[in-house]
Amino acid sequence: MKEDKKPTIVVSRCLGFCNCRYNGDMISDKFVEKLKKYVNYITVCPEVDIGLETPRKPIRLILEKEKIELYEPHSGNVYTREMDEYSNEFFKSLEEVHGFILKGRSPSCGTKNVKLYLGKEKTIGSKKSIGLFASYAIKNYPYLPIEEEGRLTNHAIREHFLIKVYIFFKFKEVEKSNSIKELIKFHSNNKYLLMAYNRSQLKHLGQIVANDEKNILMKL
Length: 220
Ligand code: SF4
What we know:
Blueprint: E1 8-12, H1 30-35, E2 40-44, H2 46-49, E3 60-64, E4 67-72, E5 77-78, H3 80-93, E6 99-102, E7 114-117, E8 126-129, H4 132-140, E9 146-148, H5 155-177, H6 180-189, H7 191-197, H8 199-219
Parallel strand pairs: 1-2, 1-6, 3-7, 6-9
Antiparallel strand pairs: 3-4, 4-5, 7-8
Helix pairs in contact: 3-4, 5-6, 6-8, 7-8
Pfam families: 2-thiour_desulf
InterPro entries: 2-thiour_desulf
């Protein structure tokens, strides 16, 4: 059951929740496991959710007529339309979320450095791209922390990820309260953190808060 007092993170299901990798494996990830107590997870396996079986033949990203396709070399099937439709639906129905932990190097979930082959044959060459499902996450939530499990083993990246998840979660709480007093409190509690990330945005927020503070005082 979802608890409102915890942030919500969308996580690739193969990271400790289900044996849904193409080879029937699951990956146990210590950080994802540790975080279970502190966040609500929404698990997702785009490949299984579009109807692919486990185990299954590997799929890959290929470039065909300048379009990125999700291709299964063994059968020659293309699953781009299914993945596009699924991703659209998933993000349309997704409620409040504060971050993503996705499986790296996957043609569906990888957020960076996913191999995009320049044709159906591997020998043609490849370049770096983003998994199809992950590209929807990035497009829909450009302001949220979206990380791969591998990058989160780096403690600096992990720290930034957690800061962003929790600050965004707290800000959404303020937004829901619809209270300028809560916004002022949020601003003063997090002033130095905001300063460390973006001085000009902190200044901008300070102006908003100061104007409203004056309005509150005038109404008293
Ligand atoms: S990487 Fe994504 S699509 Fe692949 S098994 Fe894991 S959750 Fe499913």
